[in-house]
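Hi P.,

Sorry for the delay on this. The queue was packed all week, but I finally got your sequence through. Input first:
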Amino acid sequence: MNTNYQFTISRIKEEYQNQKDIKPFDKYIVLYRSIKKCILNNDLPNEWMLPSTRVLAQELSFSRTTINKAYELLQLEKLIIVKSGSGNIVNFDHSNSVEKKTNTENFKKNLKYPTITKKGKLFLKNMSLINRPNDSNLAFKPGLPPIDIFPINQWKKLLNSYWRYIKSSGLSYHKSTGLEELKKSIKNYLNISRNIKCSNKQIVIVSGNLQSLYLITSALIESGDSVILEDPTFPNVHSIFKSQEANIIGVNVDEEGIDIKKINSYNHLHPKLIHTTPSNHYPLGIKMSLNRRKELLNWASKNNSLLIENDYEPEVTNHVNSIPTLFSLDKEDRTIYISTFNRLLHPSLRLGFMIVPEFLVDTIEAIQEHSHRFVSPSIQVVMNEFIERNYLFQHLKNVIQVAQLRHALFISEFENENKWMYIDNKEFCNLHVVAKFKKNVSEKEELEIIKKLSLHNIVTFPLSMCYLGEHKEKGFILGYSAVRPNKLIQKVTQMKSILENELKF
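Then the structure:
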């Protein structure tokens, strides 16, 4: 018998015993009341499949007529419905039960719970900073590569091969910092593509950059420690440092990257960390000059500080005119390098990595062991094969080709007779563009337009959310690369129509 049926029948039997001494005593009435009570108490949840009349009659030693009568009463009250091919299904959603909600709320008002920590409250409060819409719309959600060209069949074959040959011993616990074979492949990949040289031990496999930052801040940041962030920067980065109670110092970027003179003016605060995106500043797309990178490393050395090099979409921005990474230029082991495959392959992959200084390796591993434990070994093995078989390099080439075409198309369509906005940086350097307003727009107006766009299945992030200080540029961060050309043209046209209605310049 179906295991679900065993649990269901057990619940019904238990409730039947409680109901059978209550008049009237007709079996079908008692059974009806018993099942109804189970449904109302959420012992049988909404959309749960009930046993067939034959199975339930057999288990309860009742006639099928008795079961049919009980089910008919439940159907009359619409507590269950009949679905073709499925049978009788529970039809009572507790989340919509006003009476249940009211009783629960009244009950909870009289309960006392332990106080949530200050840090817990900060993480909750700063959720509003995290850009993570859960809708399925691709136009024009930032942070997405051309996911329609991802080689799904190659990945499926590698994954099927893993499960075909896996031994039971492979299903046990694994090293928290990652599988050695994947670390080796990443080390070789970074050596070839970014001239980064490190040991396997320094590489930590994570689910993405946000987890990397959580591990780093947990290891290094005490309440009140000063950290320097680029202004503007990722809202997610701002959120994690703010939630860890850091004293955040926003420093603007110029044409060469983060302003080193401004950083020097904060030396008296003894900043512990600088978070920077030198390959491809988010969201403006500025590439930090070689001279500025050397100045930043020199500053870190003089001030006994560390740098977090968040290598944002390096494969895209460095496919021509690559500049050495901070990590490769660093002679003192002061740079933590973080990157992710999620933005190159697809976000649902949840696979990234960081390279940490030798002195920090054991601490990071201990925190990883206490929190996230380890990334799924199956994903790590498949990713390793994906790199070793040269699929990653092939896919990267395709991503750049497709993204370049969609980038040019997006800019052409967006700027054609656009009286309201313009693209800030037209160079192909990342998988999003920044569009700014041609006239002054308030933050409130910016958010209202974004809300209006979302009603038409167009997703965009507000540029103002990326700024830390009082000066906030207004505009949109638009991801173009995941949208096929025909859809892209259609959605850009629709967006311009909405802008025309909303902005009366």
